[in-house]
Amino acid sequence: MKHRLGFLLQKSDSCEHSSSHSKKDKAVTCQRVSQEEVKKWAESLENLITHECGLAAFKAFLKSEYSEENIDFWISCEEYKKIKSPSKLSPRAKKIYNEFISVQATKEVNLDSCTREETSRNMLEPTITCFDEAQKKIFNLMEKDSYRRFLKSRFYLDLASPSNCGAEKQKTPKSSSDCASLLPQCA
Hints:
Layout: H1 13-16, H2 18-21, E1 33-34, H3 35-40, H4 45-49, H5 52-64, H6 69-81, H7 86-101, H8 113-122, H9 132-144, H10 146-152, H11 154-160, E2 176-177
Antiparallel strand pairs: 1-2
Helix pairs in contact: 6-7, 6-9
């Protein structure tokens, strides 16, 4: 099991640099995750990515497949929606556009031409909702593709297995598992 999950023991790039993105960014530290929580991740992509440890696990899985651009885009959109200052919207929108939407983007996401064009038009006067359609399309793409692969992966199955997360503690479904060794750690 250590060999299969070895990549999770390393710090991910996103965690190492989280403080450089924003002072409000929190480092992900998942010391204990209950089996109940891990099982909820299988109910919906939303349950997975709105749980701090679930998001870290999904991101690590995508990174292992060299396909983390979709979740990175989704996270960037969520952070963008929290911007309060109108003067910060335009520069941040342009940064997201150049990183994920532009044809020459460093982490180009897979969008249909209509959504890409609509998002490009939205860049003329960026608003808090300018990425909503693109974000929705990418969420649906992750839900139908990478999320399903994640749930079938040894990575998720090992996290969901009581025998791999402190079996001696697994007497009740609500007991916590010390899965820290299976999840990416960010200090």
